[in-house]
Amino acid sequence: MRPQQNRSQTSPINLSGNSLSEDNLLGFIETQFAEHAIPPERVCFEITETAAIQNLHHVIEVMQILKRWGSQLALDDFGSGLSSFRYLKSLPVDYLKSMAVSSRTWLRIRATEPW
């Protein structure tokens, strides 16, 4: 028997640059959600800043779909790229993870914050 889990708890899943370039990524994720009865809102997908900016337009599309499904998004290794703030405004992320802070500390982004 599984121990009772906090319903508001999210599980992080890293999406690599290779995963993001796979044509069937969203179909695979959708299938996993359905087959394993995983509520999308219980998952936070983590995407590295480097992977996000390598194929920015495609990654934005993937991120928007994941958000529509109810999942949360984190931009991992924020600050490691050369143009972090230039791209940040266009990425629909909920959290930033930075190497400058501990791995347990996430910075929450407010959608209404002006940049």
Can you walk me through this structure?
With 115 residues, this protein is of the alpha/beta class. The chain has a domain at 12-19 and 37-108. Helix content is 35%, strand content 21%. The chain has 5 helices and 5 strands, in the order βααβααβαββ. A 5-stranded mixed sheet has the order 1-2-3-4-5. Strand 3, helix 5 and strand 4 form a beta-alpha-beta unit. The longest helix is centred in the middle third of the chain and has 13 residues, at 56-68. It is globular and about 35 Å long. The termini are far apart. The model is unreliable at 101-106 and 110-115 (pLDDT under 50).
What is this structure's SSE topology?
Blueprint: E1 11-15, H1 17-21, H2 25-35, E2 43-48, H3 49-54, H4 56-68, E3 72-78, H5 84-88, E4 95-98, E5 107-108
Parallel strand pairs: 1-2, 2-3, 3-4
Antiparallel strand pairs: 4-5
